[in-house]
Write a structure and sequence with these properties.
The model has no long low-confidence stretch (mean pLDDT 98). α3 links the parallel β6 and β7. It is built from 13 helices and 21 strands. α3 runs parallel beside α4 and α11 packs across α13. The longest helix has 25 residues. The protein is 33% helix and 21% strand. Strands 8, 9, 10, 11, 12, 15, 16, 17 and 19 form a nine-stranded mixed sheet that branches. It folds into two domains: 152 residues, Leucine Aminopeptidase, subunit E, domain 1; 318 residues, Zn peptidases (Aminopeptidase). The chain is an alpha/beta fold. It is elongated. It binds ligand BES, manganese (II) ion (MN) and zinc ion. The site of manganese (II) ion has 4 residues, from loops. Ligand BES binds next to α10.
């Protein structure tokens, strides 16, 4: 979708539909749109009332156009009264709902407020809502095609600040949508080599250095976790490193994403129902790839390194067995008691490598545990860390970016549940608090003094229900915006 900004008057703008905001006022409605005369506004409100519009935040009501307004269709979207406090996420969601309700429409004009913070929210909601994944449809439906052009109409004239805000939002939305595409791509079309190639493509032409380890290089490097998970598959594993190091930058951030292109569970095989969703087990990797692209395009003044450990977890004659002991990067040995706890194995190698460079902060994002969904549901990510300030920094960034994430603990008592009789540790801990024991496992690979945050996005990364707000069905692009916002925060010092 193309998103632009203009200062043409709403009533004379050529478009297929015009979106205006409305606010509930007592039993009535109030129009929150500039450039519409009192007489036109009264007509719009009368038509809205006639069809039962209430102005409830997120409510979308379509009415036919009126004399004096060029658009053949007017769409009213309910928003909370901005004079009673600004909820930017509610605005993103409301505008997302409006744009989604207009699927099948080509050009939409949105009457937008001039303040850049609000404008950004309206813009992002629109861009993220106009998404569909049709790469594998032989003839995609035109009737449900996402809106192809959105023009935001501001009063007066377009300022340089507004233009810059829209350019930024476009980079962020491109990155989120790229991440969604990667998650939605079927597993037979996205093996580890393909994910590595996609990472390289994503930063093509940008000042990002790409290094890819193949299975031989991984063996030489001692990445026993990535190799063990990948050994059962005909599609070999890879490790990708993406380095963005702008001149003069002093702060440094490493982001690591779980890249299991398909998780059957391996020999500890998963039940058949819903296994197809495990094509999305590379959601963390997709977030890293998207975020690296956005950070480089935005030219943020901070060194950011992305890591994508990627493998396919398959059962076969060459697959790892429950009971195997493997040696991870850095030398720690792990007794693999359950081959379905594979994400932590690939992450451990990448975290160990990232820690060698002693960055200011390491963050990983991973579709790591079913227990995350049990604890927090499908929409809220769990945030764990070895240091409270870093965890708070990530949660605040998520909130600013509009992603739902919640702080969770890493209780010391769970450490005993990964004790192994044979090796240094096992790869599964207490089933109660399974999200936390997975975090406790990862923490073993972070040296003392290294700040690290772990985000479990098992639920929010993939929407298995209907679309809502600006969130489509399938891949959501979870964690991209948070990564970018953390980079911004650290860059600002
Ligand atoms: N990829 C899964 C976690 C998952 C489940 C993500 C559902 C999204 C939706 C992960 O590799 C896994 O299988 N975890 C196991 C760990 C267990 C064996 C300790 C789980 O959660 O059951
Ligand atoms: Mn698994
Ligand atoms: Zn997995």
């Amino acid at each position: 979708m193309t998103l632009t900004i203009a200062a043409t008057p709403p009533s004379s703008t050529t478009c297929d539909a015009l979106v205006v905001a409305v606010i509930a006022k007592g039993r009535g409605l109030e129009l929150a749109a500039h450039g519409i005369t009192a007489a036109q506004g009264a007509k719009v409100l009368a038509a809205l009332k006639a069809v039962g519009a209430t102005g409830k935040p997120g409510e979308v009501t379509k009415i036919p156009g009126i004399t004096g307004i060029k658009a053949p269709v007017i769409v009213a979207v309910g928003i909370a009264d901005p004079r009673k406090g600004l909820d930017l996420e509610a605005l993103r969601t409301a505008n997302g709902s409006a744009i989604r309700a207009l699927a099948g429409t080509r050009k939409v004009a949105v009457v937008a407020p001039p303040e850049t913070v609000v404008l950004r929210a309206v813009a992002l909601g629109a861009r993220l809502a106009a998404y569909s994944f049709t790469a594998f449809k032989s003839s995609p439906s035109k009737a449900s095609a996402p809106v192809s052009t959105v023009v935001l109409l501001v009063p007066g004239s377009v300022t340089a600040e507004q233009k810059a805000a829209i350019a930024e939002i476009n980079h962020i939305a491109d990155a989120v949508n790229l991440s969604r595409d990667l998650v939605n791509t079927p597993p037979n079309a996205l093996a580890p080599v393909d994910l590595a190639a996609a990472a390289k493509d994503a930063v093509d032409g940008l000042p990002v250095k790409v290094t890819i380890w193949d299975e031989k290089a991984l063996a030489k490097q001692g990445c026993g976790g990535i190799l063990a998970v990948g050994q059962g598959s005909a599609n070999p594993p890879r490790l990708v490193k993406l380095e963005y190091a702008p001149e003069g930058a002093s702060a440094s951030l490493h982001i690591v994403g779980k890249g299991i292109t398909f998780d059957t569970g391996g020999i500890s095989i998963k039940p058949a129902a819903g296994m197809d969703e495990m094509k999305g087990d590379m959601g963390g990797a997709a977030a890293v790839i998207g975020a690296m692209q956005a950070i480089a395009r935005l030219a943020l003044p901070i060194k950011v390194t992305g890591w994508v450990p990627t493998a396919e977890n398959m059962p076969s004659g060459t697959a790892q067995r429950p009971g195997d002991v493997i040696t991870m990067f850095g030398g720690k040995t792990v007794e693999v008691l359950n081959t379905d706890a594979e994400g932590r194995l690939v992450l451990a190698d990448a975290l160990g490598l990232a820690a060698l460079e002693k960055p200011d902060l390491i963050i990983d994002a991973a579709t790591l545990t079913g227990a995350q969904r049990v604890a927090l549901g499908s929409r809220l990510a769990g945030v764990m860390a070895n240091d409270d300030a870093s965890r708070a920094l990530v949660c605040t960034a998520a909130d600013e970016a509009g992603e739902a994430m919640w702080p969770m603990p890493l209780p010391d008592d769970l450490r005993a549940s990964i004790d192994s009789a044979t090796a240094d540790i096992t790869n599964i801990g207490d089933r109660f608090g399974g999200m936390l024991s997975a975090g406790i496992f990862l923490k073993e690979f972070i040296p003392a003094g290294q700040s690290w945050v772990h985000i479990d996005i098992a639920g929010p990364s993939f929407n298995d229900k209907g679309a809502y707000g600006y969130t489509p069905k399938g891949g959501t692009g979870s964690a991209v915006r948070t990564f970018v916002q953390v980079a911004r925060t650290l860059a600002a010092g």
